[in-house]
Amino acid sequence: MSCPLNLCLLDTAELRRRFAFRPELSLLYDRRHGLEHRLNETAAAFVSCTFSSLEPASAVAGHLGVTRDFAAGELARFWSRTVLAHTRPHSTRKSGAPPGWSAADLAFPLVIEVELTKVCNWHCDFCYNVWKVPDDYGRRARSVTGGAGDGLHLPIDAARRILDEAAANDCLRIRFSGGEPTLHPQFREIIAYAGEKGFDIELFSNGTLIDQSLASFLSRSGVRVLLVSVHGLAATHNRMTANPRAFEHAMNAIRAGLEAGMTVLPECLVSAENIGEVPGLVTRLAGLGVRHASFMPYVPYGAQDPPPGGRAAGGAEPDRGMHAGHGRGRQLPCPVRAAALPGNRTGTYQ
Ligand SMILES: C[S@@+](CC[C@H](N)C(=O)[O-])C[C@H]1O[C@@H](n2cnc3c(N)ncnc32)[C@H](O)[C@@H]1O
Ligand code: SF4
Fold this sequence. Notes:
The chain is an alpha/beta fold. The chain folds into two domains: 5-89, no CATH class; 111-343, Aldolase class I (TIM Barrel, Alpha-Beta Barrel). It has eleven helices and ten strands. The protein has helices spanning 12-18, 41-52, 56-64, 68-84, 137-143, 156-168, 187-196, 212-220, 234-241, 246-259, 278-288, and strands at 19-22, 27-30, 35-38, 111-115, 173-177, 200-205, 223-229, 263-270, 294-297, 346-349. A seven-stranded parallel beta sheet has the order 9-8-7-6-5-4-10. A hairpin with a 4-residue loop joins strand 2 (27-30) and strand 3. The longest helix is centred in the N-terminal third of the chain and has 17 residues, at 68-84. The structure holds S-adenosylmethionine (SAM) and iron/sulfur cluster. Residues 120, 126-129, 177-178, 180, 204-206, 229, 267, 269, 296, 298-299, 301-302 line the site of S-adenosylmethionine (SAM).
């Protein structure tokens, strides 16, 4: 289809693929660069007419009460100078809600986190997820192949349905996580499918399997941000993840991700155990070429933590899976709670 806006840069189908438009928030999202454009009323009408009409210039002319030629010029200016010219990539900045925003205004989640698998090759005792897996977790996790029907991996058809629904509803961003998502038997197919849909994709990984070849595949498939967990300098990170080579793997994954052109965002769980190493970690990461990092306050919901709400006096410990643990004093003396952080608007499919 030729370009009805005379932009000659992108046709409307390509604009539709690259940008998600959420009229309920007057928000235009550039999936390729992770940029949010907050639109005024006129700009929102430009976008709406571009995406819903075969003759956008005529639709804008009718909407604004101006001539078609004038509307065509304004439309072209809007797309070329206001939107397409802005491509500066940034981190996974969560910009917070616009003034007057309410969650009830949302027609669909803005960001969806898809947990591809419950399986993981590590055993971080702080993890809020691993205690969900069955008692024979260790044996199954090591076998990795798991099989789609055992309830450990999200079936690929379900993953496709989630992505189809998210695309149809202009979801801005998909984040794949787990467990360790790279261990899903059809991991590459799922990533490729999300890429075909044009999503802004983030992948959350412990980095073990991310070498140059996988990083290059991810980048080619549209993964813009690679989040790699790093919880301190080598000894601390290896201890917290119970893996003597975890730090080495994480560093290799970060290097591979940067070389492949992705934004690499190391993610550090900050607890009383590692907070003293944060400055040293930042220096080390900056030396690799990392430009953004994320620091996540520890949520006391891991395998070694007391159950939510604590144990009733004299009562039995609630059943919470294979690990019913007892805290390790990891929690920071800090009133911030993850659930209260601005921009925490992620829908999670588990
Ligand atoms: C559940 S993991 C899944 C992805 C991948 N396996 C990894 O570790 O990066 C996602 C992130 O959640 C973090 N996480 C796990 N348990 C946590 C907890 N109790 N509090 C805060 N963050 C936690 C991990 O450190 C990791 O950065
Ligand atoms: S690597 Fe990720 S999913 Fe696996 S145990 Fe650690 S935090 Fe949990």
